[in-house]
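Re: that backbone. Tokens:
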């Protein structure tokens, strides 16, 4: 029998998605996107000679609950120790977070969540009825990782530790020594380690890449997606990879009450993307490297307003707005007066910050609009 707790729950509003619902499709310029520039279906199909015919001939029936063998094989090949049977395909990373947390946590359990973080990691964990502690990182400390604080947050009965590297929203990367310490403590305490790795392979220097959690801990759970690094959020596909078969069965059982299975065309296109990830990631990494100096130049030129820890991974940065104040009004004014969308840090519990996205082709014009707005604001 597979057991998981009741889903009768109270959950806080999803702040980031409520904000985007107001502005995302109305603003002319996105300056807060967490994903990279998207590819078209035509571009994806051009990566393999028989892909157009395969897509045209695809029957639109139900798909396998765990994901197509083709896609799971492609995903497994991106890890060191993972076989296709260790992969479960889900409808985006969001479903993965929801089903994993509700499969692992029950009322009265204890979990530790790295913060700041994507809102659902913290709020879904709380919605299970578990006692949730934060492993806090702070701008004042350069977003450093305090391993002693992590040890202090863990308990004898801790069931889950959630981390995210490369990190959203700061664009930073967990140092190798810290990652090893996190993996060690999870193994020693037999704690499930859920590692959000949706920006993996988009480290600005590939030498900074960390191992996948599923490869270093028998109860490690690597969360992946084609949305961020690959730039394919419209496919709505993510996955978990883990060598813990009991957890996989529990998440699969819960998935039967959410999406059951994935879109057949999305699975085919995602398999093409993962098999050819070098082409997708190479283009997006080049774009990130080209755009980052433009953002750095603006932050330097506007030092009276913006300060940051320069990002080292992914397409996002998290500058602080000075003087210390809620930056939400700045974001509201910017989108209303210049049609440029920044994300207020309040959605991450960091009201003095804004998230900047620099993984899109249109970044230079968005930055120019932002700069012009700041000139008008100063005047």
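Recovered sequence:
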């Amino acid at each position: 029998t597979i057991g998981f707790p009741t889903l009768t729950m109270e959950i806080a509003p999803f702040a980031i998605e409520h904000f985007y619902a107001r502005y995302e499709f109305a603003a002319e310029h996105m300056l807060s996107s967490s994903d990279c520039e998207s590819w078209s279906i035509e571009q994806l199909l051009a990566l393999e000679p028989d892909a157009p015919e395969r897509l045209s001939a695809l029957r639109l029936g139900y798909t396998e609950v765990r994901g197509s063998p083709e896609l799971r094989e492609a995903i497994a090949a991106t890890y060191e120790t993972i076989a296709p049977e260790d992969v479960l395909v889900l409808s985006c990373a969001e479903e993965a977070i929801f089903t994993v947390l509700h499969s692992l946590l029950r009322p009265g359990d204890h979990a530790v969540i790295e913060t700041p973080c994507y809102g659902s990691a913290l709020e879904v964990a709380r919605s299970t009825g578990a006692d949730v502690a934060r492993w806090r990182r702070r701008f004042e400390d350069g977003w450093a990782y305090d391993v002693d604080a992590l040890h202090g947050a863990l308990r004898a009965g801790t069931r889950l530790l959630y981390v995210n590297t490369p990190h959203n929203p700061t664009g930073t990367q967990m140092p190798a020594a810290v990652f090893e310490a996190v993996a060690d403590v999870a193994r020693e305490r037999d704690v499930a380690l859920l590692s959000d790795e949706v920006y993996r392979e988009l480290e600005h220097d590939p030498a900074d890449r960390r191992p996948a959690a599923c490869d270093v801990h028998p109860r490690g759970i690597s969360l992946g997606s084609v949305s961020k690094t690959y730039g394919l959020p419209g496919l709505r596909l993510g996955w978990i990879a883990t060598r813990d078969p009991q957890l996989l069965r529990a998440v699969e059982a819960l998935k039967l009450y959410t999406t059951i299975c994935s879109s057949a065309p999305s699975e085919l296109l995602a398999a093409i993307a993962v098999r050819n990830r070098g082409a997708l990631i190479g283009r997006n990494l080049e774009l990130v490297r080209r755009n980052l100096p433009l953002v750095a130049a603006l932050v330097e030129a506007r030092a009276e307003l913006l300060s940051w820890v320069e990002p080292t991974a992914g397409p996002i940065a998290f500058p602080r707005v000075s003087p210390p104040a809620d930056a939400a009004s700045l974001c509201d004014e910017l989108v209303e007066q210049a049609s440029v969308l920044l994300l207020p840090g309040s959605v991450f519990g960091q009201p003095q910050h804004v998230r900047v996205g620099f993984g899109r082709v249109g970044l230079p014009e968005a930055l120019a609009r932002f700069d012009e707005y700041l000139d008008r604001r100063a005047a």
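The two ends are 67 Å apart (CA to CA). The chain has 14 helices and 14 strands.
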